[in-house]
Amino acid sequence: KKGGFGRFRTRFARGVLFVVVAGAGTFIYFTQKDLYPGTQLDQDPKKKTVVVLGNGWGATSFLKQLDNEEYNVVVISPRNYFLFSPLLPSVTVGTLEARSIIQPTRFITRHKKRKVAVYEAEATDVDPINKTVTIEDNSELTASSSKVTIPYDYLVYAVGAENQTFGIKGVKEYACFLKELKDADRIRRKLLDCIETAAFAGQTEEEIERLMHMVVVGGGPTGVEYAGELHDFLIDDLRKWYPEIADKLRITLIEALPNVLPAFSKQLIQYTESTFKENKIDVLTRTMVKDVREKSVVVQDANKEIKEIPYGLLVWATGNTSREITRNLMAKLPEHQTQRRGLVVDGHMRLAGAPEIFALGDCTATSYAPTAQAASQQGTYLARTFAKMAQAEKLKEQLAEMREKAPGDDVERTVKRLNKALDLPPFHYSHQGSLAYIGSEKAIADLPFFNGNFASGGVATYLFWRSAYVSTLYSARNRTLVILDWMKVKIFGRDVSRE
Ligand code: FAD
Ligand code: NAI
């Protein structure tokens, strides 16, 4: 017969078992429920068609929040997944694997009430007069003329932006960008190519130095985060696996302005610059890249002197510019579209000159910074607007029927409800703060605090940065993969094999 302690031990073990089983069950439920979508309503020709261009931050947040019972939705994008861009710099050195930060768009659309058509294609033209979009399939398997024109009642335009080059010669030929998954992959392969080539027998000292010189152009958050990741790779992995050449690796960040991260507070700029100094990342401020050659960049420094800097890998991160399709759309509405920066929209995100088009995110010229935060809030706002528009449409139909039958109190009440549904508040942006990783397990954060700002930097902020991004990742699957990648790198280091 068991004594008091034995009984306690059995109960404790049962309790632990229960917690483990319940925890595992909850975990499996939340990670797997996306894999079993239910039945959906068919598309209905009587409903209005909403064409969504893009599946980035703006479009995905719109899709996720939209109640699509009243709409036939068509999603068009050249990639068939949502990319969590804030963690993209980590993919360039293998801290994270590419697939950990993407979510297939069909995982999102298969959970909507009504079926959503998803086309992996590039929109090549928008006709705001006839309300159509021309799309082109970009698969290698289709004929070159696989173009289709799709009519819309409403167009949600969220195609983002492309990389700004300022027309500088050689950028597109020789530099790597950092916007899409394929860019991060290209950087990773090119970085390892530089290192392996530098380690090859018989290389001259000069060539080794060139190959091991990694240059980043643009001291905005993209350039800073990439430089930070590169530094971690050098310290954690390169020294271990390439001891003969690791110390030849140099990182240089070139910025035209007097300091990096102009959008962050002064103390965080200083903190970042001093951390970079400690980490031996050379920061060349007031230095403008003028020309890009195959193996060197030509810069003009603060004293207006022209210098040539040899490089092995060049990453170009000098901000955004409008895509060709956006520039063409602006050219079709010259009286209304007067900003070079992007599309002009009103407070309800209706495109100036074409109110059936709603534009959001990086493709627009608004007072908000082109960030994921702004784009996703706009997507949520737009989904609410569409819900109100659907409600107003229904009430209008009801009202017409009522007026025919018997005018009275019911009509009055419906008119009031209709006016309420039509009274759409303008979009209001709520800034939740800015975060950036700067390397060596340090991050910086500018957070709104009452009416002021709270700035912090260091290892604790890095833990906050990690938890903030893990919690905003799209799905439990993404969260699991990202955490596992971090654990994997901590235990085994980054994988230095070049695919
Ligand atoms: P995107 O997310 O770029 O989506 C555009 C979509 O349009 C894509 O799906 C694309 O495939 C599609 N598309 C393109 N051309 C066409 C076409 N012709 N037809 C149809 N579809 C098309 N912001 C933050 O707030 N916090 C961060 O930490 C942060 N980190 C970042 C890190 C990096 C490396 C980068 C590059 C950006 C980062 N940003 C961050 C900025 C953020 O990613 C953008 O502001 C955000 O993606 C804008 O959302 P969007 O929907 O306008 O465009
Ligand atoms: P950016 O526009 O923020 O910065 C580009 C930098 O390049 C500028 O400081 C500019 O002065 C510099 N530059 C331009 N031409 C140059 C030249 N020829 N030579 C040298 N320097 C030159 O661009 P970035 O970093 O790509 O960011 C784009 C947007 O995405 C921003 O709105 C940013 O806030 C957002 N983002 C946010 C992140 C975060 O919050 N952690 C991370 C990455 C991007």
TrEMBL record:
Name used for this protein in its record: NADH:ubiquinone reductase (non-electrogenic)
Enzyme Commission (EC) number: 1.6.5.9
Main localization category: mitochondrion
Main enzyme class: oxidoreductase
Family designation: Belongs to the NADH dehydrogenase family.
Organism per entry: Hordeum vulgare subsp. vulgare
FAD/NAD(P)-binding domain span: 49-379
Keywords per UniProt: FAD, Flavoprotein, Membrane, Mitochondrion, Mitochondrion inner membrane, NAD, Oxidoreductase, Transit peptide, Transmembrane, Transmembrane helix
InterPro entries: FAD/NAD-bd_sf (IPR036188), FAD/NAD-binding_dom (IPR023753), NDH-2 (IPR045024), NDH2-like_C (IPR054585)
GO molecular function, one term: NADH dehydrogenase (quinone) (non-electrogenic) activity
UniProt domain External alternative NADH-ubiquinone oxidoreductase-like C-terminal: residue ranges: 431-495
Gene Ontology cellular-component annotations: mitochondrial inner membrane
Residue ranges of the TM segments: 12-30
Pfam families: NDH2_C, Pyr_redox_2
Location within or outside the cell: Mitochondrion inner membrane
Mode of membrane association: Peripheral membrane protein
Domain of life: Eukaryota
Catalytic activity: a quinone + NADH + H(+) = a quinol + NAD(+); a ubiquinone + NADH + H(+) = a ubiquinol + NAD(+)
